[in-house]
Write a structure and sequence with these properties.
heterodimer; A: mainly beta; 7-stranded mixed β-sheet; 4-stranded antiparallel β-sheet; B: mainly beta; 12 strands
Chain lengths: 111, 116
């Protein structure tokens, strides 16, 4: 199993509050990604990173920001959570952009 | 833009049978990767098999094999001697082999039920 840890694994939060999801890897892989998975939409890319302080937007980046100050950590922040951001969030890593391995997912419910 | 299409939303087969999941994709790229991921009820995304487009030989991993038809842009997954543990959602995925544009694109999935 790829050494990817997501935290928290489950969270319930109120609308309008900020939320940060953390992805930690022990593989020293360069590439890191955040996806969300929703019924009928499959997996959609939110943000990704090619290295420390090198990030870019995916197809559903509105309402999300990311930071990567260390190779091993990739943080996803919802500045002001909305109900539409209720989802399962997956972190993924890739050594050189050829094969992607996923974390176990973080279940976020915004009430 | 690249697209990945899985035309079978749901399938059911008896244990020990062979089942084939279909996937087609659209791209103008020549170098790329194709993947099948399995997502069991635990929601963990597990890499099943990987194919590099420049390799003509079809990838195999134990009971899992693919039929890669590059000209037809088809990438089907065959599961032989299916087991109850194969029950899961299966996603076909595509990734361009282009630096800084190597985001993985997923199909919407096929839900596979293996019946005892």
């Amino acid at each position: 199993d790829a050494g990817i840890t997501q935290s928290p694994r489950h969270k319930v939060t109120e609308t309008g509050t900020p939320v940060t999801l953390r992805c930690h890897q022990t593989e020293n892989h360069r590439y890191m990604y955040w996806y969300r998975q929703d019924p009928g939409h499959g997996l959609r890319l939110i943000h990704y990173s090619y290295g420390v302080k090198d990030t870019d937007k995916g197809e559903v980046s509105d309402g999300y920001s990311v930071s990567r100050s260390k190779t091993e950590d990739f943080l996803l922040t919802l500045e002001s959570a909305t109900s539409s951001q209720t989802s399962v969030y997956f972190c993924a890593i890739s050594r050189q952009g050829d094969t992607i391995y996923f974390g176990e997912g973080s279940w976020l419910t915004v009430v | 833009a690249q697209t990945v299409t899985q035309s079978q939303p749901e399938m059911s087969v008896q244990e020990a049978e062979t089942v084939t999941l279909s996937c087609t994709y659209d791209t103008s790229e020549n170098n790329y990767y194709l993947f099948w991921y399995k997502q069991p009820p635990s929601r963990q995304m597990i890499l099943v098999i990987r194919q590099e487009a420049y390799k003509q030989q079809n990838a195999t991993e134990n009971r899992f094999s693919v039929n890669f038809q590059k000209a037809a842009k088809s990438f089907s997954l065959k599961i032989s001697d299916s087991q109850l543990g194969d029950t899961a959602m299966y996603f076909c995925a595509f990734m361009k082999h282009v630096k800084r544009d190597d985001k993985i694109i997923f199909g919407k999935g096929t839900r596979l039920h293996i019946l005892p």
